[in-house]
Amino acid sequence: MDKTTIVNQALILLGVELLDSIDSNNLNAKRAKAIYEQTRQALLREFPHTSCTKTVSLGAPLLNTNNYNIPDDCLRILYVHTGNESSDMDRDYVLKGRVLTTSISNPNLTYVFDNKNEGTFGVGLIEALVYLLAFKLSKSILGSLETNFYKLYQETIEKEKSTDSLQIPSQVFFSDDAFSFKYSNW
Fold first, then answer.
1. Counting Cβ atoms within 10 Å, is residue 128 exposed (0-12), middle (13-18) or buried (19+)?
2. Whole-angstrom Cα distance, residue 27 to residue 25?
3. pTM here?
């Protein structure tokens, strides 16, 4: 799935002519292109879908401090952790611009990244993006803001949060602490 296909799905909902390409030289293509990247990034920031999260080591600190540069593709920080223990998923940190300060050494960062490959998005995430684009484009194309598209967007996000949460394994899944064995003499 590419940008043009996603934008065309939004335009179908609005009942207007489809695009050959988002880079076409017509008014609706220009409107869609103007809001597409910001809308996609806003959606990803709002909802940390599993296809748009990753964990990295932040590497060496800046000038022997506890300051670390965050990755360029980071849209939202989910956790700062050492990665050693399941209970270690939410360490304290301060973010100033693109520099993260934390008291732990060798921190790992789990974050929402700017996933520009829409082909890796789940069906629900694409559907939410289509509804959000239709909502944002409705005023400029139809002359009125169609709030039903925003309601559909919100409903889709809620369903997708439920679905996506079922796909994330527990942090303590099969940890030794979760099981206690009793031995018998037989």
1. buried
2. 7
3. 0.81
- Token look-up 């684009």 returns 133
Distance CA 148, CA 168 (A): 31
Residue 130 and residue 30: Cα distance in Å, rounded? 17
List the structure tokens of 78: 């989910």
User: Hey, where are the domains in the chain?
Assistant: 3-48+121-160, 50-113
For CA atoms 10, 165, 1, 31, give the dihedral sign.
Answer: positive
Q: Residue 68 pairs with which residues in a beta bridge?
A: 100
Summarised one tens digit per residue, pLDDT across range 91-133 is 788 999 999 999 888 899 999 999 999 999 989 999 999 999 9
Q: What percentage of the chain's residues is helix, strand, coil (to nearest 5)?
A: 45, 15, 40
Q: 182 is written with which tokens?
A: 């009793």
Locate 75 and state its tokens.
Answer: 């849209």
Q: Are 46 and 76 in contact (CB under 8 A)?
A: no
Percent of residues, the chain, with pLDDT higher than 70: 84
**Whole-number pLDDT of residue 49:** 87
Which amino acid, 71?
P
